[in-house]
Amino acid sequence: MLYREALNRAIDECMAVDEKVVILGEDVGRYGGSYRVSEGLVAKYGEARCIDTPIAELSIVGNAVGMAIGGLRPIAEIMTANFSLLAFDQIINHASKLHYMSNGKIRLPMVVRFPQGVSKQLAAQHSESYEQMLSAVPGLIVWAASDVNYAYHALKQAILMDDPVLFIEHELLYNKKGEVDVDTPLDPFKARIVKEGKDLTIVSYLKMVDDVMTAVPTIEKELGISCEVIDLQSLNPIDHATLEASIKKTGRLVVVEEDHYTGGYGAQIVSFAAEKLFYALDAAPLRLAGEDVPIPYNRSLELASIPTPEKIAARIVEWGKSNGL
Amino acid sequence: MEKRIAEEIYYLMELGRRFEYAAKEHYMTGEISGFLHLDIGQEALSVAAMRAFDHGDVFTTYREHIMAIARGIEPKAVMAELFGKTTGVSGGKGGSMHLFDPTHFFYGGDAIVGGHLPNAVGCAYARKLEKAGHGVMAVFGDGATNGGAFFESLNIASAWKLPVLFLCENNRYAIGTEITRVAPFLEQAKKAEPYMPTMEVDGMDAVAVYEAVSEARDYIEKGHGPIFVEAFTCRYEGHSMSDAGTYRSPQEMQICKAKDPIERMKKYLKEYYNMEDAYFDEVGKKAQAAVDTAVEFAAQSPEPEAAALFEHVFCKECSDVVS
Ligand SMILES: Cc1ncc(C[n+]2csc(CCOP(=O)(O)OP(=O)(O)O)c2C)c(N)n1
Ligand SMILES: [Mg+2]
């Protein structure tokens, strides 16, 4: 099943059993979503539940908050992460805080989905990532789907939960193929060990997980080691237990993220390791991230601005050699 | 309309359409990438509005190649930008959606729908403060009129009597969503009525657009405050190269293509100035030659240097301190 089909199936199954579940966003209905995630749903559930909105992100999320207060279970789609900035007030001041401010009286069973990241030459206003900012918001659950199976299960549970979930997708993953084990639910708050290993823990999420996996054979060969690769999946809250077990086992940590280095999400993981697992570490951790620049249009510059499998392999091999591997 | 201006507009429309077809062709070959929004069908609006608004500042959207050219930016600098080359008007860092040239008072090239409207209003404030005698034209689609930035801009421009010409290109669609499905009426000028005078014009008619925008420009330059012009138009292609545009029926497309703006301008030149076929052939050839030159220039231009990645994150003075 394709990643986008897994997301579609999760939404479809929830809409089929609960008429309170609605989707809203730009071109999500008749058009089927610009990445085809909601394809076919309007034919099954009608326009009243597959709501084509105007270009008004503040209202897309703001209305979703109100719909949730009113008893619906809305899934809001923001066409591209950058446009979610227009809805930050609603996400941060409203969605994430109402439960707390009302002393638990108000529940917001809602999901905000958006694709993010560097795709192919979409330039600075269409290529950003916001997990770092939105994971810093208490009251908001942030999940990032890199795996097709996770995409299906986690989105389904996000819809069923009573807390607001920010569900991050990556623009280059929609056509990724993978197996979905429909009958075995998973815990979406848990990180996934993509590959076991004993000498080095590489932590990543979203599309970078695939790039890390592409780089791993080279790293293992060049350094003569085995790598453990962890896909975080839940960015907030973080599955510290899985991280801790792996870092204690390997004694070395590399974090790979696509977004800008300064203030990036990976710093949180390194901070956790430095604070809590300092004596388990055999070397200072390494962070690989995008450059601190807006994403340029030109393809070579664009690729130079983010980690690629080649760069990930080269940097880790170089770092490993000077850090006792 | 003066013959000189009519001829100029006709040439730019021919050039614009051929430019867009060339861009499409080179998108297919992979030399151009990302989101490419073609302006085919809307040439009368893009060209005539820019020629009428020949002084003052312009803020527009991602569907702006023809506007940039009509503003005076060289076709080769626009094409090179689409190719991501260093000779592009934005050095290859902006691409199709982000053409900027302050020497032509052309400020993008903004790809956040409605996001440039408050910027246009702010620029108009600056012009008013310096008593510049001219104002700002903000160009946007029908889809942009549903966002908060739009309403805030109408309100502020009107409250402070700022010289802003709001030009709405109503092609009835925001990607696949027809405006009447997400707004209570087709005419978006109705939203501006409480704030400022509004005008409606046939956006497929270059002469009408030229006259309307000229009149509106005079109005803001006299210090009366903002004005709203709504032009009804039609894009022939999909929203961008990633959209097949199947939500519009063949009949609908046929009706809109029957109003072709270039044919219409040709007819005007024939009727008013007795232009003959040889003239149109000549203009067509000249326009094609300009496009071919632009493509050749773009193809042969160098890629940006690797160091360009880190240039212009900050101004030079500040960068020196940072590094
Ligand atoms: C804030 C924001 N939301 C969504 C988008 C995605 N998007 C790009 S163009 C577009 C449609 C705009 O339609 P309209 O304003 O009518 O302009 P047109 O493309 O028809 O010229 C949408 C939804 C965006 N770029 N910015
Ligand atoms: Mg439109």
Question: How would you sum up the major sheet of chain B?
Answer: 7 strands, mixed
Which ligands accompany this protein?
Answer: thiamine diphosphate, magnesium ion
The assigned structural class of chain B equals: alpha/beta
Q: How much of the polypeptide of chain B forms β-strand, as a percent range?
A: 5-15%
What average pLDDT do the residues of chain A reach? 98
Could you tell me the CATH topology label of the largest domain in chain A: Rossmann fold
Radius of gyration of chain B: 19 Å
Shape, principal axes of CA atoms of chain B: globular
Largest interface here, residues on each chain? A-B, 34 and 39 residues
Structural class assignment of chain A: alpha/beta
Helix content of chain B: 40-55%
How many helices of chain A?
Answer: 12
Report how far the terminal alpha carbons of chain B are from each other: 55 Å
Q: How are the strands of the biggest sheet of chain A laid out side by side?
A: 2-1-3-4-6-5-10
Order of helices and strands of chain B: HHEHHEEHEHEEEHEHEHHHH
Going by CATH, the homologous superfamily of the largest domain in chain A would be Thiamin diphosphate (ThDP)-binding fold, Pyr/PP domains
Shape of chain A: globular
Write the layout of secondary structure elements.
The complex is a heterodimer of chains A (325) and B (323).
Chain A: H1 3-17, E1 21-25, H2 41-45, E2 50-52, H3 57-69, E3 73-77, H4 88-95, H5 98-101, E4 111-116, H6 131-134, E5 141-144, H7 148-160, E6 165-170, E7 192-195, E8 200-204, H8 207-223, E9 227-231, E10 234-236, H9 240-250, E11 253-260, H10 266-276, E12 286-290, H11 299-304, H12 309-321
Chain B: H1 3-28, H2 43-52, E1 57-61, H3 65-70, H4 75-82, E2 100-101, E3 106-110, H5 117-129, E4 136-141, H6 148-159, E5 164-170, E6 173-174, E7 177-178, H7 179-182, E8 198-202, H8 206-221, E9 227-232, H9 250-257, H10 261-273, H11 277-300, H12 316-322
Parallel strand pairs in B: 1-3, 1-4, 4-5, 5-9, 8-9
Antiparallel strand pairs in B: 2-3, 6-7
Bound molecules: thiamine diphosphate and magnesium ion (MG).
